[in-house]
């Protein structure tokens, strides 16, 4: 082995030098990445969901720009509405009791309050949701209210349906309730929508959503105020004043350090092979497929998917073979003989014509859900009770040909 005095470096010393160089280069690269993120990171703030200042998919800046193009001045501020405010939009009800009382007095004097928080104390009772079979199809008004003039369908997401109170009118019925309820209060009115996501930039351009919102938010007098809760100045923190890219850069520092430690850590032994987990179809995928079929007006394709699901469930629960499920009529006869299900309903679900409109698809899906949920195989006869009828699922005995002649 050579040493330093001989003009050469020992192998151990070389390893330490290489390790220090690697750590130094990694830290320099990390600093450069952080600086690049700060300098070229996104400047525009997306904001929080339902924020009137946010231009992101879940922001509500788009509806304010639509109202501005229609010549309706809109402001986003707190406080009590005044005589210059014709319509007040309350997206999320975080108001205090005193603010509720002041807002109610303003409505009684002739103001119009558009409320998109169905859980507010000012909203009617919630009785259900707008979703159908894990999907969120658009919804029809089905009423003669002048506020829905020119509106055929409205996009909803994660919304609720409500029960109108005495003297109130309602539109957009679904699942035993209504998505929009219009309640007169004094000289004014409160119009409650079943969810605030209809206001978002993502849903604003779908169906006639923008038309409905423009009708609701256009005042007969004055302007539009988007009401937000008053925030005391002392509640502002240092993080509120920092740009978004600074927070992202600070967050990446510990993550990068953990990644470096993991990369340099010693791992003993060979990798252990593991079987890949079974991939389960996500509910978001099902919802996305349903939305795509609804937008493309492919009602028949959606009904075919429901029919295929019913066929798979009946086959699995009754243990049927492929030869039985190949012919729909044979499948109907076998299922009817082994269960107490209605043969006419089975024929409509498995062999009848598919629905071609939304109402027919809703009825078809409801019948499919009931049929699958009520599928119970009929219990075979018990020989101990004296019954001689064979089990519906048993195979009858057939004697070989020629046996009778040999006897």
SSE order and pairing:
Elements: H1 11-40, H2 61-69, E1 74-77, E2 85-90, H3 97-108, E3 112-115, E4 125-129, E5 160-163, E6 169-174, E7 177-185, E8 188-193, H4 201-204, H5 209-217, E9 223-227, H6 238-241, H7 244-264, H8 283-295, H9 299-318, H10 322-325, H11 328-338, H12 343-350, H13 358-373, H14 403-406
Parallel strand pairs: 1-9, 2-3, 2-9, 3-8
Antiparallel strand pairs: 4-5, 6-7, 7-8
Helix pairs in contact: 1-7, 9-13, 11-12
Brief overview:
This protein has 407 residues and is an alpha/beta fold. The protein has helices at 11-40, 61-69, 97-108, 201-204, 209-217, 238-241, 244-264, 283-295, 299-318, 322-325, 328-338, 343-350, 358-373, 403-406; strands at residues 74-77, 85-90, 112-115, 125-129, 160-163, 169-174, 177-185, 188-193, 223-227. A 7-stranded mixed beta sheet has the order 1-9-2-3-8-7-6.
Structure description:
- With 407 residues, this protein is an alpha/beta fold.
- It contains 14 helices and nine strands.
- It has helices at residues 11-40, 61-69, 97-108, 201-204, 209-217, 238-241, 244-264, 283-295, 299-318, 322-325, 328-338, 343-350, 358-373, 403-406; strands at 74-77, 85-90, 112-115, 125-129, 160-163, 169-174, 177-185, 188-193, 223-227.
- The strands form two sheets. The protein has a seven-stranded mixed sheet with strand order 1-9-2-3-8-7-6. Strands 4-5 form a two-stranded antiparallel sheet.
- Helix 1 (11-40) runs antiparallel to helix 7, helix 9 (299-318) runs parallel beside helix 13 (358-373) and helix 11 (328-338) runs antiparallel to helix 12 (343-350).
- It is flat.
- The N and C termini lie far apart (103 Å).
- The model is unreliable at 1-7, 232-236 and 380-407 (pLDDT under 50).
